[in-house]
Design goal:
Elements (H helix, E strand, L loop, with lengths): L2 H19 L10 H31 L4 H29 L25 H21 L39 H9 L3 H9 L19 H6 L3 H4 L6 H13 L11 H45 L7
Protein name: Variable large protein
Function: The Vlp and Vsp proteins are antigenically distinct proteins, only one vlp or vsp gene is transcriptionally active at any one time. Switching between these genes is a mechanism of host immune response evasion.
InterPro entries: Borrelia_lipo
């Protein structure tokens, strides 16, 4: 059976495709729509993989099955079908991310005296479900669960005085009231992209609401992306991962604008923080997708190898 060579070729070509697609890094000039287009391209890559797997399955159906290979070919068909189902789930989640943005720049600061603007609650819910779906698919495929962080804004390891004031970049319908871009940068620097993503997916959809009281360790990234008064959000009990997640989401999702002090220099610093947080989140999502694709296709390739050499089935 020659399906083995076809499957092996598809395996390596798709890994190359995914590696080439997963290269987005946003800058101050990147629009939120650009990020959506990136996910559209990625979804098309997943769709291509599904088509290639279907073609391989078709070859196994049409081949003359020799008795000693028949069982192994059946296992290959099962592996291909399972891979297709996994990719379909992954694609549905990725497709949801295509239209979450708008024409504004990633990390953009509000134009009305640097006032912050909440990210769209409806779009935040879509993003939450999409990211949670991507991570759930990954864990189902065998990727390790994400590791979170319990670092609070009151901890000295963040490295600046009064780091909680950095959360003021998430003020809603108000500016930050002081120059806080450097403190926001310290918060984002204190956590990894994996910790930011973990904080987001451990939220719940109903948390896409305004912060109406003092922020705590239970306040989620979705709430921070909507924001609140500077008095409510700038609290030492809040988690750095949650604040960073809120900054990333507001920087990427439709309608969202960060808050800065009413001067040009802080505006530049704050947008840079938004870009940094967004990149950390995007890279973490990329890593999850890349590892999922790799594990799923490796399992198919193992069955391909067995179908080409039945002796491997016993190893």
């Amino acid at each position: 059976m020659e399906v083995g060579r076809s499957a092996e070729s598809a395996f390596y070509s798709f890994m190359e495709l995914v590696s080439g697609t997963l290269e987005l890094r946003v800058t101050k000039d990147t629009t939120k729509n650009d990020v959506g287009n990136y996910y559209k391209k990625l979804a098309e890559g997943i769709e291509k993989a599904i088509g290639e797997l279907s073609a391989i399955a078709g070859q196994t159906d049409q081949s003359d099955k020799q008795s000693e290979k028949e069982a192994n070919e059946s296992e290959l068909d099962k592996a291909i079908e399972k891979a297709k189902q996994m990719f379909e789930k992954l694609k549905r989640s990725i497709v949801s991310l295509e239209r979450i943005g708008d024409i504004s720049k990633v990390g953009e600061v509000g134009s009305d005296t640097q006032k912050g603007v909440s990210a769209s609650a409806d779009e935040l819910k879509i993003v939450f479900e999409a990211l949670k779906g991507i991570v759930n698919s990954a864990v189902e495929a065998g990727v390790e669960e994400l590791k979170g962080s319990r670092l609070t804004l009151s901890q000295a390891s963040i490295g600046v005085a009064s780091p909680e004031n950095g959360a003021k970049v998430l003020a809603e319908n108000a500016n930050a009231g002081a120059t806080v871009g450097d403190k926001a940068a310290a918060i984002v620097s204190a956590v990894s992209g994996e910790e930011i993503l973990a904080s987001i997916i451990n939220s719940t959809e109903d948390k896409a609401v305004k912060i109406g009281a003092d922020a705590t360790a239970d306040t989620t990234p979705l709430e921070f992306a909507v924001g609140g008064t500077v008095g409510n959000i700038a609290k030492g009990a809040a988690l750095a991962s949650a604040v960073s997640g809120g900054i990333a989401l507001r920087s990427l999702v439709k309608g969202g604008k960060l808050a800065a002090n009413n001067d040009a220099n802080d505006k530049i610093t704050v947008q840079a923080v938004g870009v940094d947080a967004a990149n950390k989140l995007l890279v973490a999502v990329e890593d999850v997708i890349r590892n999922t694709v790799k594990i799923v296709l490796e399992k198919v390739k193992q069955e391909v190898d067995k179908s080409r050499d039945p002796k491997l089935a016993d190893k």
